[in-house]
Predict the structure.
Amino acid sequence: DADVTQTPRNRITKTGKRIMLECSQTKGHDRMYWYRQDPGLGLRLIYYSFDVKDINKGEISDGYSVSRQAQAKFSLSLESAIPNQTALYFCATSGPTDTQYFGPGTRLTVL
Amino acid sequence: QKEVEQDPGPLSVPEGAIVSLNCTYSNSAFQYFMWYRQYSRKGPELLMYTYSSGNKEDGRFTAQVDKSSKYISLFIRDSQPSDSATYLCAMRDGGATNKLIFGTGTLLAVQP
């Protein structure tokens, strides 16, 4: 089984809809991250969490919110989706060192 | 100016060629440098990790860091079609936040 799982893997939705992307990990890591990937822009950090009670904004947090439900679960929400949030979304986890382990990604399309 | 610059490619080479992938950066505080490999429709996976300046070798892969020039490289010897992927450089400073700054990635195609 994969160490970092993301659901759904693909999602098509309409402008204005609320969307939640979920991430679970079995690596026992405290640190979890949400990124989005866009062509020509690379991976950009949306939010990160160093433990259940710690949530921090990344470089592009506007329009997104997160919830750390447990050490192993970190979800990303788009309260009112807009077309420029169409992207590939990745969850990642790490221990205290730099090695971040990525999930398989969620391809989100907002029409 | 972006903190990390990486040529997006695509880079196409014949099987067996030596591949050189590069990133430049502007933040002199960066101390930890990584290369991730991302296959199509997959998440990035860590390939190489180096601290400060110098070289690190792992099989067919060599990572080089030149902090004086703010330049890092990944060399792939005897390239194989299975090396075809997007290669992302990433780096961070020595702080406790562990926040990585990624390059945009270089798409590599190794032709059989």
